[in-house]
């Protein structure tokens, strides 16, 4: 079984446009990105394109014991890897699918909305229609006081973010390979109420995606 870094490199060589970087996110990028997450109140955190789980591990280690973390990943190699490393942690749900399906995934888990969505998928290399679909779905799935946290290696996606979201704050992390742009997006609207919307709608157990 290859090491996580070798697994990442192998998949970058096979699918460079879907990863965007030859190396995983650094701890500097992870720490800066997660400063904006209120782990005490967050009950549903979604991550698009978690890869080998660098950021996912940090999220799970910090989040509330009653919180749920949903990892949406299209790459089957990464899905198998994530299922191994998070085996036994019922707070983590790993979904083999596109970020564009986030609304259906959130509803199927019994939640009305997400508190935070984290995305490292390379928006600049994907088709425009898919990029718009993911961003608009993210806007709708967030609580009114939720946030979309995006990290990219260029500012190409910024006009799309500002057209979909109510406001976008920007930061820069130079201690990453490649240096990263971070965007923190406040939604225009939410599919859930602004108060208590991220808590499960029923007392039924969460479905087992993996």
Overview of the molecule:
- This protein has 210 residues and is an alpha/beta fold.
- The protein has one domain: Vaccinia Virus protein VP39 (Rossmann fold, 3-Layer(aba) Sandwich), CATH 3.40.50.
- 33% of the residues lie in helices and 22% in strands.
- The protein is built from eight helices and seven strands; from the N terminus they run αααβαβαβαβαβαββ.
- It has a seven-stranded mixed beta sheet, sandwiched between helices.
- Strand 1, helix 4 and strand 2 form a beta-alpha-beta unit.
- The longest helix has 14 residues.
- The chain starts with a helix and ends in a 24-residue tail after the last strand.
Q: What characteristics describe this protein?
A:
210 residues; alpha/beta; Rossmann fold; 8 helices; disordered C terminus
- β-strand number: 7
Number of discrete helical segments: 8
What top-tier CATH class fits best?
A: Alpha Beta
Strand content: 15-25%
CATH topology: Rossmann fold
Q: Determine the fraction of residues in helical runs and give it as a percent range.
A: 25-40%
CATH superfamily: Vaccinia Virus protein VP39
Distance between the termini: 20 Å
| Uncertain ranges | 190-208
Coarse morphology = globular
